[in-house]
Structures are given as C-alpha cells and as structure tokens.
Design goal:
By secondary structure, the chain is mainly beta. It has a single domain, classed as Outer membrane protein transport protein (OMPP1/FadL/TodX) (Porin, Beta Barrel), CATH 2.40.160. It contains four helices and 20 strands.
Length: 435
C-alpha cells in the first residue's frame, strides 16, 4: 500500500478520536443528544447499538459475519476480515422526535457524532477492534403548572420545570480469534464514561418574593469498567450458501462515579443552600445481558438474520423519580433484517452494485411506568454505496418507529433516526514490485 493511504487513514482516526473525546467531555446545554421524556428515568434512553450496516437491518449483528464491514455487536466477529486489511468506520446521527400526550405536542431535532471504530489484524486468523460508541443519552425539558386546589388556595400558583441532559459513552477494545475454521471467539473490555444531570425547579408565580424558587437536582460523573464475551459458529449449506450462529454475554457492571446532590432556594440575589453533598461510589448498575442470533447468506447476493436480546434491570438500584411510579423491568428485544445486492460486480449499472437493507424490531424497554412497560416498535431501511476501491463505502440507514402510547397517561413518541456512515478500507503491508 502507498504511504499516503496509511497516513490518511491513521490521521483520520486520530483526528476523529480526539474530536469525539472532546465532545464527550464537554457539557452542551443547548444541544441535547436526545429529546424524550423517557430519558428522565434510570440511565436514560439506551442507544440502539450498531453502524448503518446493523441499523438498516433492524439492528441485528450478533450472528453476522462480513469481511467488508465492521460489526462491533459481537466481539467474535472481529476475526471476519481479510488478513491484511485495515478498516475505519465512523458515523453521524440525526434524530427527530415528536412527543404528544393527546393534547400537547413537542418536536426536537438532535445531531451528534455516533461512533468511531478501528479494526486491524493481529496474527493470521485473529484481529482487534477498538472505538468509542454511545451507551445512553439523557435529554428532556418540560413545564407543568400546579393544579391541586388546596395548594392553589394556600400558597398560590406554582410552575414546575424539569430538565436533564448528559450521556454515557463507551470506549472499548475487542480481540477475536478463529479456531478449527468454523468457530470464532472474542472478548471485549469496555470503559463507561460520561455524566448525567437531572434538575427540577418549583417557581412561585403568585408570590415570588416570599417563596422564591426551589432548585433541586443531582449530577453523576461516571467512570467504570465492563466486559463482554462472544462466539460465532459458521459453516456452509452449499458452496454458495453459508450460515452463522452467534451469542454474546455481558456480565452485570456497576456504574461507579461521584454523585453530587443539592437543594437550594433563590430569592432574588439571595441563595439559601438547603443541602449539598458529594457521595463517592454510585450504586447504579447495568444488568447482565445476553443475545443470540443467526444469519443465512447467499454469497455476494443476500443475507437474512435475526437477534434476540434479554437483560434484567430489576436490581439496577435507580433513584426514585418524584411523581411517577418507575420500576426497572425485564427488557426483551427481537430484531430481524435482510440485505440484498443486485449485482456486486456490475460494470454497466452502478446502482446494481449498491447494497440495500431493510428490517424491523420490537423492544420491551427496561422502564415500567405506573405498572405499564414502555415498548417500541419500528421499521428500518438503508443502503451502502461503494466508492473508490476495495470495500470503501458510504452507508445510510433510517429508523422510523413509535415508543409509548396514550394508554395509562403515557406519552406517545414518534421518531425518525438517520445514520450516515463512512466505511474506509485499505490493504497494508503489500510490497509493490513497481513504484
């Protein structure tokens, strides 16, 4: 490979890695990573993982092996690659939300860096992946006025403001090796980092000089380690048709960090601190999670697959949310997807070389609100456009779905998420005969 290609790939990764780390460390008040009232509970809105490859197929990936793309959903898939190839994958995400309770509606758009991942060989049939991906996001703002007659009669009208922001990101490094030609195993170390802020205000509208504004909230700064293990078994039904079955296991992990809690009353320029303390060692945790999946592939033509994920959040020890009966629940997700390439090697028709994807998912989230589990259902589609040479491509995926409903006083949320993905691929350590 030419030295110019090496420098471009290496410097691109370094530049984007620094930019992502700076963005994750900086708190941006006016640009939320998400905007949903469902992010006010627990660790917030858990991000659906995957690049545009995965997201375009409903989010599958645990039983998927493809040497053209990076698939970080199963650490065992890292060994599915050409032995001299280096790959870099980074993506951007645009989210569009419309929330309504039947009488009032709100809309919000959010744009963020989504992921950056580097994959490279180690030795023969072994390889590594490393990168930064999102884990969860918090972003909500809403206002409500006091409606209880006894409070209105005794102290007057109050307005309550609730707002939160922040995110938890995940830096990871995964190693994978293939044994006996049909079995791949992988292990992944993860570091969770980020901060989450949740705040509330009670503002007196009738007599602000007497009651002032009560502000309460907490800020948690997280830095904690985790792990994930995966395996994939693969073989052939025929010379042109192959299969892969996979599984991942992620042990329970405590999200360690410092928690700052405060309450204060503001009356004009006077601030009276009711309490403010910092406690070391958050008791929040993310649960044990396991996923099984499979895929069937017709060589250079199509792939079909499905995944099932389950995680038990019931012992996650989240803080209570005043005014709402929130309980962590058993989460289940079912995903299925299809990929199709009309003619990968077509010379006359460029669009026949594109790869097209579609899929669907059903998600029972970890949130139980007032005795009702919040669910989501969605459809996805996308495509990859080959560029330049090797397996370089630009990918796009669209995720359109609905979470929650009007039943039992919940909020119905409709969303469209767009991921723009850049997959860079090159071959290293080839000695050219001629310059």
């Amino acid at each position: 490979m030419q030295k110019t290609g090496i420098r471009i790939l290496a410097f691109s990764f370094l530049f984007l890695l620094i930019g992502t780390a700076r963005s994750a460390a900086q708190t941006i008040t006016d640009a939320l990573g998400t905007y949903t009232p469902y992010s006010m509970f627990g660790v917030g809105e858990v991000t659906r993982p995957g690049t545009s490859l995965n997201r375009g197929m409903g989010g599958i990936g645990v039983g998927l092996r493809d040497n053209r793309y990076i698939n970080y959903l199963n650490p065992a898939s890292a060994s599915s690659r050409d032995s001299l190839s280096f790959m870099l994958d980074f993506g951007l995400m645009q989210r569009n939300f419309i929330n309504t309770d039947g009488t009032r509606s709100s809309a919000y758009n959010a744009f963020n860096m989504h992921h950056i991942i580097l994959s490279f060989p180690i030795w023969k049939s072994s390889a590594m992946q490393m990168g930064i991906i999102p884990y969860s996001n918090v972003g909500y703002r809403f206002v409500e006025d006091e409606s209880r007659e006894d409070i209105l009669a005794n102290v007057g009208s109050f307005r309550y403001l609730h707002y939160g922001q922040g995110s938890i990101n995940q830096a990871f490094a995964a190693f994978s090796a293939t044994f006996f030609r049909h079995l791949s195993v992988g292990a992944q170390g993860m570091f969770f980092f980020g901060n989450i802020e949740k705040n509330a205000q009670a503002v007196s509208l009738s007599n602000p000089e007497l009651y002032g504004t009560l502000k309460t909230g907490y800020d948690i700064v997280i830095g904690s380690f985790g792990a994930q293990f995966g395996l994939q078994a693969f073989g052939n039904f025929s010379p042109s048709t192959s299969f892969t079955v996979g599984a991942t296991f992620q042990p329970r992990a405590t999200l360690r960090g410092d928690v700052t809690r405060f309450a204060k009353v503001e009356k004009g320029s006077i601030i009276d601190t009711v309490y403010s303390f910092v406690s070391e060692g958050s008791q929040m945790s993310i649960p044990m999670e396991w996923t099984v999946g499979f895929s069937i592939r017709k060589r250079d033509k199509w792939v079909f697959g499905a995944d099932y994920t389950q995680s038990d959040w019931r012992k996650s020890n989240f803080a209570a949310t005043p005014g709402v009966l929130f309980e962590p629940a058993l989460s289940r997700t079912l995903k299925a997807g299809l990929e199709f390439t009309p003619d990968r090697y077509s010379i006359r028709y460029f669009m026949r070389r594109w790869t097209y994807r579609m899929g669907a998912y059903y998600d029972q989230s970890y949130m139980m609100l007032n005795g009702n589990q919040v669910t989501a259902i969605g459809v996805t589609f996308g495509f990859s456009v080959p560029i330049y040479r090797w397996y370089n491509s630009i990918g796009v995926s669209v995720d359109a779905g609905q979470r929650g409903s009007f039943e039992n006083n919940l909020i119905r949320e409709r969303y469209i998420m767009l991921i723009l993905n850049f997959n860079l691929h090159d071959i290293w350590f080839i000695k050219h005969r001629y310059n």
